Each structure stands twice: as C-alpha cells, then as structure tokens.
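Kindly inspect what follows.
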Amino acid sequence: MPELPEVHALAADLGARLTGRTIDRLDVVSFAVLKTFDPPASALSGHVVTGVSRHGKFLDIATDAGIHLVMHLARAGWIRWRESAPVPSGRPNKGPLAARLVLDDGSGIDITEAGTKKSLAIYVVTDPATVPGIARLGPDPLAPGFTEATLAGILAGQGRAQIKGVLRNQSLIAGIGNAYSDEILHAAHMSPFKPASFTPEETARLFEAMQTTLREAVARADGVAASELKKEKKSGLRVHGRTGEACPVCGDTVREVIFADSTLQYCPTCQTGGKPLADRVLSRLLK
C-alpha cells in the first residue's frame, strides 16, 4: 500500500505532469471504484488541472472549476503515466485497469488495482473535506504544526492501546501505514505491542524516529517517477518485508507476526529485548 512518502512523491510527479493541462475525460472502467455521483465524472471534462496535493494517503487533483478528483489507492492500487492515447484491448472490464484520466492530447494516467480484493476509491467532489476518509483524518505528521506535544496529546488519549495500531490509525495520525509504522518503531527501539502510555522520554524518542523515518523516505522518493516508487520504497525499508534477513543495525534475524489480513516485522534485539513476540494479536511481550 502506498503510504505518506509514496503518495507525497506521486503528488509531486503528477503535479509536474498535469498542472496546466486540460482534461478531456475520466473513463471509469470499474464502476465500483467511483464513490460519488454529484458532480458526475463528466464534470471534469474541459477543465484545466491547477495542482495536485495530498491529504494523508489521498491524492487530490484540483481543477480551475473547483472540481476535485480525489483518489485513495488502498492496498493494491497504483497510477501509471501514459504518453499517448491508449490502444483498445478488446477486453472491456478485464485486467487491473479501474479508471483512466485522459488529457486533451491523448496522454494521461491509468489508475489500476491488482488482485481480487477491490478497495481503490475515486471521488469527484467540489470540496475534498466531504470525502469521508479525509474528513476523519488526524493531523499530518510532517505538517509544521505537528510537534512532540501534538504526539504526546494523541498518545495520552489512547491509554494502553498498542502503539503499532495507534500509528496506523488514520483518525489519529494521517498517512502512516503498515510498512512505515514498522520502520518507525524499529528506529525508536520499541515493541509494536508496547502500550501507548508513554513517558516523556519515550514520546521524544518516538517523535524523533517518526520525523526522521518519514522525512528520509520523502527525500529518497523526491523526483522518482511513479513507475519506480515501489522499488524505491522496498529498497529503503530496514525491517518491513524483510522477514528472515539480518537487521541492518544489530545483525539479529528480522521476525514477523502474522495477523488475519496483514503482517508486521521487527527486530527482537533492537525492539523487544531479544524476546520473540508470540505470533498472535494478544501477545504481551512488551519490554
């Protein structure tokens, strides 16, 4: 799933390609992805893109008519730039293509989603704040106003909730998902199952790890084309997705915990005092 750094880079890449260009049309191939009906998708036609921005993990393509094309790529969605008009495949509604934004010269973007579990969502709105997922977003961790005190206030309201879940909760902190929560906790030397009732020293350590991890990932992705972002993300991860490999910090073997629909990765030496976590949600090996 693309998270804050990748969506940030996608917004920059698409902004450079789309800003000032005129939209010919939005073709919705998989009608389940379009979550709104007013304005209709056809309302985008003929309007000029004025910019591309990010809200958490949401992409926002704005036009001169005040109409926004908002996308959430979910677990398996992606965007591919097309230099020219598409060649008809003769297989309508087949393959990963979910929607296609076509510019007036035939170039544009293909919005795709792999796999059978379809969660990609597209909204055509006059105000991005009306998109339910955006309306529920917590503060952005890279915003100037997100301080150590902001994080302390969020943690104070979560009691003994596990910190891994707190970091991933979009209503509390926008943009962090499964991968970067693993990376942040590894950098902070904290168990993913640690309760959120932190001391001031622990809060400072988590804040520093969050800022460093996300800002370094954003810097690595800066200027990287959309087609290369997935590879870049994977190459920069130290523990997430690296089960069985050596931790780059201490050399211990990276372990994982498997849940019903996801996994997490961690280093026992760096994060749990050398103790492997039980492979179940209710593990209480916290220190």
Summary: The beta strands are 23-28, 49-55, 58-63, 68-72, 77-82, 97-103, 108-113, 121-125, 255-258, 263-266. Residues 200-221 form the longest helix (22 residues).
